[in-house]
Design goal:
This protein is of the alpha/beta class and about 290 residues long. About 45% of the residues lie in helices and about 15% in strands.
Length: about 290
């Protein structure tokens, strides 16, 4: 089982927290990998997740496809369309998690818009996510202020609630987001939608320092992270880099499932190497 060695000795926290604790102990930066579940099929996604875990991904986010993904760029929008055409549902994604949990111990985060979760029912979703073996949930369009009932349903079942922090968030709101989050805090590197970019925002170091002042949680930085150079730079700012669109593009370009799995593994190995190299520039916590 991937990362199995880290889970047997630390039993009082989530699988996500244990993984970040192990990364901190070894002085390593984490890599969070995002895939749209069901693109091009749920069976293919299972192969992709196992390939990513074996290649060194520390946490894997499984995106639940949604018909109106307003926060996503064109690459992930197309992936959602392909997954929905293949018949992917939230129930199907939960079944995928259950199947994966029998094969890997890599932390798994359900990444969804609120509508599918609300349609299933918060309590039913919480029970199903826990039973399947999910470790956390990130709802892209739900704010902490509006998410009290959701947070209760998820956290009471031992699952992490991960919220997004944005560059536009003032310090007071960053503190609210931090308090509502567990596992890690997902910091958006820039305004706009998801997608690969050539350069990271100039304001990112100052933003990361602001967030670090208000939280003890690990910080994962995403949106526009696609190149080894990006990941290396983040070693001085974050506990993990989140890579999504660059991986989804690999799937889109590949001729078949096997080629996509190989391309994903190669990309993650490259990015993970950059993450390890980048930790030498890490700023000490104040």
């Amino acid at each position: 089982m991937t990362h199995a060695a880290t889970t047997s000795t630390m039993t009082n926290s989530s699988r996500i927290s244990r993984r970040f604790a192990e990364l901190r102990r070894t002085g390593e930066m984490g890599l969070v990998a995002y895939l749209t579940a069901g693109d091009p099929s749920l069976g293919a996604t299972e192969k992709f997740v196992l390939a990513l875990a074996d290649a060194g991904a520390d946490v894997i986010e499984l995106g639940v496809p949604f018909s109106d993904p307003v926060a996503d760029g064109p690459v992930i929008q197309r992936a959602s369309e392909r997954a929905l055409r293949a018949g992917t549902t939230l129930a199907g994604v939960l079944a995928l998690v259950k199947s994966l949990r029998e094969k890997t111990d890599v932390p798994l985060v359900l990444f969804s818009y609120f509508n599918p979760v609300l349609q299933m029912g918060l309590e039913k979703f919480g029970d199903a996510a826990k039973a399947a073996g999910a470790d956390g949930v990130l709802i892209t369009d739900l704010t902490p202020e509006e998410g009290g009932e959701y947070r209760a349903a998820i956290s009471s079942r031992g699952l992490d609630t991960i919220f997004l922090a944005a560059p536009t968030s003032p310090d007071e709101r960053l503190a609210i987001i931090s308090k509502a989050s567990s596992g890690f805090l997902y910091l958006i590197s820039r305004t706009g939608v998801t997608g690969t970019k050539d350069q990271l925002a100039d304001e990112l170091p100052a933003l990361a320092r602001r967030v670090r002042r208000v939280t003890e949680l690990p910080i994962a930085i995403g949106f526009g992270i696609s190149l080894p150079g990006h990941v290396s730079v983040l070693g001085g700012l974050a506990d993990a880099a989140v890579v999504g669109s660059a991986l989804v593009e690999e799937i889109e370009r590949a001729e078949n499932v096997e080629a996509a799995a190989a391309a994903l593994a190669a990309r993650v190995k490259l990015l993970k190497s950059a993450a390890v190299a980048g930790m030498s520039r890490r700023e000490p916590k104040s």
